[in-house]
Design goal:
The complex is a heterodimer. Chain A is α+β, with helices and mostly antiparallel strands. Chain A contains six helices and 16 strands. In chain A, strands 6, 7, 8, 9, 10, 11, 14, 15 and 16 form a nine-stranded mixed β-sheet that branches. The longest helix of chain A has 19 residues. The chains are: A alpha+beta, B alpha+beta.
């Protein structure tokens, strides 16, 4: 029998040159640096953790202890690295949350701090099942676009937590880079048991609206919005970008898309939820 | 740009219909463009390797527009597409590939 084994020192990593891409923090500084390696990519969260991702996105490794707590590494893996790796497998993952409304899913896509988790929590505490609070994975199956459940936890700022959940709600260790608390799904917030067909997508805006505004989007505008909210590892990979563009252009023909803006006050959250429900039910 | 020109879609440009509009992706620059309904129709006709005169005639047949306006709009739009690298003249392709 002929076998083969790859041997060589495993504690020597290729020297990193300049990152080919950087995600910056809102207040300045690098959040995530992207490097190319001979076998794929290296993702560096400065001061927290580093990961390698194979070129085809099928293999992810954590590169040695970088000082971050296991919860932090796990969170970075689930919410950042895995979505990026899945994009290498031609899968669609968005910066968004989603809830399962008993068979149909609503998604909320937006930038960090737009209110994705808060909206998802508001629905999940009122009968819906949580699909994910970020890193929304969508896949076409049986002619429908299915939203796939995430990892079963919800991260909320303390003020959102206080406004939405009883004080005795158990919290789990949060990632150390964020002041958000983590709520694991269970009795109060239930995780969707499986994929749910996506029906409506709301792109969250925060333009200081003084009332709730839901504005339908054209297919072309929705396509541009989807592009801007999709995880993508390596924007120089033309084949990958073309594949994503193709999938997204199919998606916009099957779903309803709207812009959603509302005053960021917890007292209005119930009304926001009811408006969204009315909007959704108009098509069901 | 003249009415006898024929335009081609370069290999680095993808176009997808989205409702009444068309979204273009320039893979070289990573920039996306949206064409409105009329722009989408001109794009569609031009991408079928028609002369710009034929494109103008189709617009005259399909829309409430006079010949001079249609020809001017088509030529201006075609020039803009060419200027942004989203279409190229067929003669340019021959020139660069020989």
């Amino acid at each position: 029998m002929i076998g083969s084994e790859r041997i060589g020192p495993d504690d020597v990593n290729p020297r990193l040159t300049e990152p080919f891409h950087v995600w910056s923090l809102p207040g300045g500084g690098d959040w995530l640096r992207f490097f190319r390696t001979t076998t794929g990519y290296r993702l560096q969260f400065p001061g927290l953790a580093e990961f390698t991702v194979s070129r085809d996105g099928s293999v992810i490794d954590v590169l040695g202890p970088a000082g971050a707590a296991p919860e932090t590494v796990e969170h970075l893996y689930q919410n950042q690295v895995l979505p990026l790796a899945l994009s290498r497998q031609r899968k669609l993952v968005f910066h968004g949350s989603a809830v399962d409304m008993d068979g149909g899913a609503l998604a909320f896509l937006g930038a960090s701090g737009a209110g994705k988790s808060t909206l998802a929590a508001a629905f999940a505490l009122n009968g819906a099942r949580l699909i994910t609070d970020d890193g929304l994975r969508v896949e076409r199956s049986g002619g429908r676009w299915q939203a796939w459940p995430g990892h079963g936890s919800l991260r909320l700022w303390d003020d959102s937590l206080a406004a939405l959940l009883p004080p005795e709600t158990p919290r789990s260790p949060a990632a150390e880079y964020s002041a958000k608390s983590r709520i694991v799904t269970g009795d109060s917030i239930r995780l969707s048991a499986g994929p749910a067909p996506l029906q409506r997508v709301y792109f969250l805006r925060n333009y200081g609206a003084d009332s709730i505004a839901i504005q339908p989007l054209s297919a072309a505008d929705a396509l541009i919005e989807l592009v801007s909210h999709a995880f993508m590892l390596d924007l120089d990979d033309r084949e990958l970008i073309a594949c994503h563009f193709d999938q997204l252009s199919q998606m916009v023909h099957c779903l309803h898309f709207s812009l959603l803006d509302f005053p960021r006050r917890y007292s209005i959250l119930r009304e926001v939820r009811e408006r969204i429900l009315s909007d959704w039910e108009a098509d069901v | 740009m003249t009415s006898s020109d024929i335009l081609l879609v370069p290999g680095h440009v993808m176009a997808r219909h989205a409702g009444q509009e068309t979204v273009l992706l320039d893979l070289d620059s990573g920039v996306y463009y949206t064409l409105d309904e009329i722009g989408s129709r001109i794009w569609e006709l031009a991408a079928e390797a028609r002369t710009l005169a034929e494109v103008s005639q189709s617009l005259i047949d399909e829309y409430d527009v006079d010949a001079a306006t249609a020809e001017r709009d088509v030529l201006e739009f075609a020039s803009e597409l060419e200027g942004r690298g989203l279409m190229c003249r067929r003669s340019d392709v021959r020139h660069t590939t020989t």
